[in-house]
Amino acid sequence: MDRKRTQKVLVTGGAGYIGSELVKNLLQEGFQTIAFDNLSFGGESLLGVWGHPNFRFIKGDLLNEAEVKAALQGVDYVCHLAAIVGEPPCKKYPDQARKVNWDASVRLYELCEAAKIERFVFASTCSNYGKMAARDTLLDEEGVLNPISLYAETKVNFENYLLGLKDSTICRTILRFSTVYGVSPRLRFDLTVNEFTRDAALNKPLLIYGEHFWRPYCHVSDLANSVKIALLSDKEKVANQAFNVGDTSQNYTKKMLMDEIKKVIPNVQVNYHPVVTDPRDYKVNCDKIKNILGFTISKTVPQGIREIAALVQNKVISEPLSVKYGNV
Ligand SMILES: NC(=O)c1ccc[n+]([C@@H]2O[C@H](COP(=O)([O-])OP(=O)(O)OC[C@H]3O[C@@H](n4cnc5c(N)ncnc54)[C@H](O)[C@@H]3O)[C@@H](O)[C@H]2O)c1
Fold first, then answer.
1. What is the pTM of this model?
2. Helices (H) and strands (E) in the chain, counts
3. Which residues have CB under 6 Å of ligand 1?
4. Which domains does the chain have, with CATH numbers?
């Protein structure tokens, strides 16, 4: 049964892969929920919530100050997810990436101050850790941030901006998301688990670079849930804090992912290539969010693989190779 809450939440990037899942989650929790998005990837992701009495959509661009200012009227909490997401699009559109992920994000925060917003949750990324110094160390929130892409650089800069504010009264929380997988209203197939599983399910041979490189993974519905938990937690626990989001058990190398995929799709053809195309290599400790906020995951990587494999094998998605499931 849906609950009732009085607070109004604005989700920037609310039509996106994680944002559309978050909007669903917040509506279930009873929040008045506004999705603010310029619909770079379309708006079909919002069809499932469109008629909901507590849902509102604002088509707006983060780069348009007047639109952002108007959207913040009467809002209590802001979840900032809109961004140029991932290294390939940031590399392809560097000016846009700097403008959205940095300039417009700072301006958004200043407008939140003026609008007397109570809480601000920022969707950051574990990509900020870049490359582990020691291969056997799990990186916790005290770990050194080592951005090795423009994408991570913009995220680290905005994290530092938020954490460095001295006089702001807004309760600011940084969530460093693990790499996402799983089904959401805006599906993406350009993320490791989803992409490898899709290709295997389509009987496409896979060529994998950097097979021994580690990453933490988390299901999209669990990430959405972490944002809700941050909004509902006591301010003393979340104010001016960064949390890795995921579960410490969910660090995998690409080779380990393929081993799991083989259990579901035994005939998959895979070749490993010695060239390293993406130097990111990090294992993350997610115990802080579990111990302080009580966050736990509901799905694991093997479950996510089965979820995506079933989706593709049953042809639920008519054109799984379409570019619309990617961000470039
Ligand atoms: N997908 C991941 O693995 C991952 C991992 C860590 C962190 N994150 C972070 O989570 C957030 C959401 O990621 P996602 O995977 O849902 O990405 P996404 O690309 O699916 O969603 C981003 C949304 O932001 C919107 N947007 C982009 N620029 C905008 C602008 N100028 N004005 C208004 N709306 C704009 C897009 O239309 C899109 O709907 C991002 O901040 C991302 O950096 C994602």
1. 0.97
2. 12, 12
3. 13, 15-19, 37-41, 61-63, 81-83, 85, 100, 123, 125, 177, 179-180, 186, 188, 191, 327
4. 8-180+217-248+284-298 (3.40.50.720)
